[in-house]
Amino acid sequence: MFPETGLPDAWERIWTPHRSRYLSKARRDGTVEQECPFCSAYTKESEYDLVVKRGETAYVVLNLYPYNAGHLLITPYRHFADITTATDEEMLEVSHLTQQAMVVLRKAAGAQGFNIGVNQGAIAGTSVAEHLHQHIVPRWGGDTNFMPVIGRAKAMNQLLEETRELLKAAWADL
């Protein structure tokens, strides 16, 4: 039993010792040395992959740590960090996949709005700075509530596998 060291604070802790391997690989800029998740995601064709659409130069994958259900990432297959080095073909396909993602998310999930953005570099908040990716976050009226503020938790209304199947089916109907 640990001795009482004072009053408890307002934080509820979720113990995740398995994540310590990521922390031990942290770089000075805040990124983590890891296998590129975007380079490996599109090569894993299985019932457990999170890819919802494959294009010629880019693909769409569910975010493993979503802000909202249906949070998608659109990324070129080619491994590069800076959007200024994207080819015209890559930029065009990322744009087309963004348009399609919006149609699919409206159709399959009733999305009412979107946050769309690219964080360039670790200082801008990206956790995978080495591989360009764009976020498509579907939004609905009332999708934010007291849980993140009071409970420091985000309620997700759907499992990733269910979201993947719903979006893949809607994409196939385009």
Helix-strand layout with pairing:
Blueprint: H1 20-23, H2 37-41, E1 51-54, E2 58-62, E3 72-76, H3 88-109, E4 113-117, E5 134-139, H4 146-151, H5 160-172
Helix pairs in contact: 3-5
Structure overview:
By secondary structure, the protein is of the alpha+beta class. It has helices at residues 20-23, 37-41, 88-109, 146-151, 160-172, and strands spanning 51-54, 58-62, 72-76, 113-117, 134-139. The protein has a single domain (31-172), classed as HIT family, subunit A (2-Layer Sandwich). A 5-stranded antiparallel sheet has the order 1-2-3-5-4. The radius of gyration is 18 Å and the shape is globular. The N and C termini lie far apart (60 Å).
Poorly predicted regions: none
Helix and strand succession?
Answer: HHEEEHEEHH
CATH class, named Alpha Beta
**What helical percentage do the residues reach?**
25-40%
Q: How many DSSP E strands?
A: 5
The CATH topology is given as HIT family, subunit A
Produce a short descriptive summary.
The chain is built from five helices and five strands; from the N terminus they run H-H-E-E-E-H-E-E-H-H. With 174 residues, the chain is an alpha+beta fold.
Keywords:
174 residues; alpha+beta; HIT family, subunit A; five-stranded antiparallel beta sheet; 5 helices; 5 strands; 29% helix; 14% strand
